[in-house]
Design a protein that fits this description.
This protein is of the alpha/beta class and 124 residues long. The chain contains 2 helices and 7 strands. The protein has a 5-stranded mixed sheet with strand order 3-2-1-6-7. A two-stranded antiparallel ribbon has the order 4-5. The relative contact order is 0.24.
Length: 124
């Protein structure tokens, strides 16, 4: 099973899902963390347009050539859950629609939070 965690440094849980730069993706087997990778995540307000550099601005200002993918969900579409400190209602709904369990946790080290989730002592 893979668990995603919103992070800015790969070690700690970010305070805000929307502003986090990365996802730490931990692979868990038999209750143990057996793998880890860091995946890029575009912070809220960023978008990538085909044939253009990255831009910042509201979605309404995005050119028509913006790639049709979900920058929140696509990088972690192989994960069962996402841990983050703050998950807004719209992001929560998008994650749930994609079959990813959104779990709000306190900011802090990633590994103990993932272990608590796997042990059933962390409820989101």
């Amino acid at each position: 099973m893979k668990i995603a965690v919103a992070t800015n440094d790969g070690c700690t849980i970010a305070r805000d899902l929307g502003r986090a730069a990365y996802y730490a993706v931990l692979t868990v087997e038999g209750g143990l963390i057996v793998g880890r990778e860091v995946r890029e995540k575009q912070p809220r307000g960023w978008y990538r347009a085909t044939g253009h550099a990255e831009h910042r601005g509201p979605a309404s200002s995005a050119p028509e050539t913006v790639e049709g993918h979900d920058q929140l969900v696509d990088p972690i579409d192989d994960c069962a859950a996402l841990l983050a400190s703050e998950i807004d209602p719209v992001s929560r709904e998008r994650l749930e629609e994609a079959g990813i369990w959104p779990v709000e946790v306190e900011p802090g080290p990633i590994d103990p939070a993932v272990r608590a989730l796997m042990a059933g002592t962390l409820v989101g």
